[in-house]
Amino acid sequence: MIIECLLRHSVGKRGIRCIHTSQRLAKEALKNSKNKSQSSQEWLRRQLNDPYVRRARYENYRARSVFKLMEMDEKYGLLSPGMIVVDCGAAPGAWTQYVVQRLKLDASEPHTTGAVIGVDIRPIQPIAGAILLSNTDFTKPLNQSKILHSLNGKSVDVVLSDMAPNASGQHDFDSMAIHALCYSALQFSLTVLRPFSGTFVTKVWEGPTTPALRNDLSVFFSEVKHLRPDACRGDSTESYILCRHFKGVKR
Ligand SMILES: C[S@@+](CC[C@H](N)C(=O)[O-])C[C@H]1O[C@@H](n2cnc3c(N)ncnc32)[C@H](O)[C@@H]1O
């Protein structure tokens, strides 16, 4: 487990080489893994054979997770230049990298008005064009105030939550733990999203409380879709709920 965490969050010199470093370390670790647990060995093998890991490496993204957001964006047109986006659970930073590109926040478009704020409880290495809040627990009200402060009164077009707790292996418990993060991101969204057009995307691990979560989301959004992008691992219960057309609440 420790090896897995180290590899997942290893970042190279320029901050965009996480996957490269991870692949190299995975190969070395697999060679030396005879004494490691079976699950660590399986993870290493899967990492080396995963086409999304290879593609992320080739396209200079920090994690394979980028392809989940990319697929949802390509299908539903979530992101465009000029938008304000908050990315909750942003480390190591692949979703934020993608948002920066889609919003043209890199040097290619100097006069763009949009912004992306990436937040994570872990460190996030710098990403040109993004505002990053590292070592920041999103669920803490004080930290949400910091995000509001960086927004400077502007409404948000898209709130993304790819937040995930450390899994305990107890399926129902883990599912409820991730739902707690979803509700925290939802509550924040209700205060910042642009009424009638705002979008909220959240990762879930399916469990007994997922239908209730979906019902709650449909109170606040006109369109709620449950999606499972191709890049979700076959053996995981992970999926995403895409909520569009925020109905607005009385503030
Ligand atoms: C699947 S990873 C996100 C990957 C990211 N979307 C990317 O593409 O690089 C889930 C992240 O959620 C973060 N997380 C979990 N609980 C959090 C919390 N309370 N506040 C902020 N981030 C949290 C974890 O630290 C982890 O980095």
UniProtKB/TrEMBL annotation:
Signal peptide: none annotated. Residues 61-246 form the Ribosomal RNA methyltransferase FtsJ domain. Keywords: Methyltransferase, rRNA processing, S-adenosyl-L-methionine, Transferase. One of its GO terms (molecular function) is rRNA (uridine-2'-O-)-methyltransferase activity. The active site is at K203. GO terms for cellular component: mitochondrion. The keyword Coiled coil does not apply. It holds the Pfam family FtsJ. Belongs to the class I-like SAM-binding methyltransferase superfamily. RNA methyltransferase RlmE family. PANTHER family: RIBOSOMAL RNA METHYLTRANSFERASE, RRNA METHYLTRANSFERASE 2, MITOCHONDRIAL. This is rRNA methyltransferase 2, mitochondrial. It comes from Medioppia subpectinata.
